Amino acid sequence: MAKKRVVRRKTSRCIRKRKSSSLITKKRKYICAFILAAVLCVVAFFIIKDYLQEAETFESNKYFVKGVDVSHHNPILKWDVVLDQNITFAYLKATEGTTHEDRNYPFNYELARKANIKVGSYHFYTFALSGKEQAQHFLKIAQFKQGDMIPAIDVEHSPANPYSKDKEYIAMVIKELKVLENELFEHFGVHPLIYTNKDCYKLYVKNDFPNNPIWMCDLHNEPSDDVKNWRIWQFSHKGEIPGIEGDIDLNYYRYSFEEFKELLLP
User: Tens of pLDDT along 4-17?
Assistant: First the structure.
């Protein structure tokens, strides 16, 4: 009988240990779930906070030269209405990669010029493709007339341009971007404007394109002095213009109306 009691006691202890282990596991799961929920709440808070802080109109008392940029994601604009808002310039997406043509580009280009908006054309750079072929595609499609703005290259991450820390990948992106930039420089005799954001500027632009004017996207803060050559600041992706449907990108030129001429083709 004594042996049976010992067995029962051991069995009881094992059951208690299993229950205790199960409770600890459940507590850990609850703690992990709580931490994950807390992290998600913090992330969501900052995303919402950033979104709500993004400007929707031209409100600066510091910058007076205003601009917009559009692509096929926007409707074809009523450019007379744009001009009525004292908007000076517009950059229009013309091409992407080696084959894509923006379907709204030719219409926006002609209408904007007729409305006396200073027009510029930009190419969305695709990281994995030949810089020379992209330059050829852009020059074939984009239109440039006397008094238009200098060409621009859009350098940013996207599904087509994934982020990577791989050094060979970064070197390849810079190499082909240099080829694209040089092709445009040789064609126009001026260094093209480079559109980018803080992350891509540090990765691909800062140390390799000292002569290019920079068009910096920062939805919350004026570009810092680290970006020495910045000329245009894109400060909103959800701008509102009376008489225009949908959100639109808003920009400021850094200096005066007189100095704005530096971005115009002779």
Answer: 554 455 555 655 65
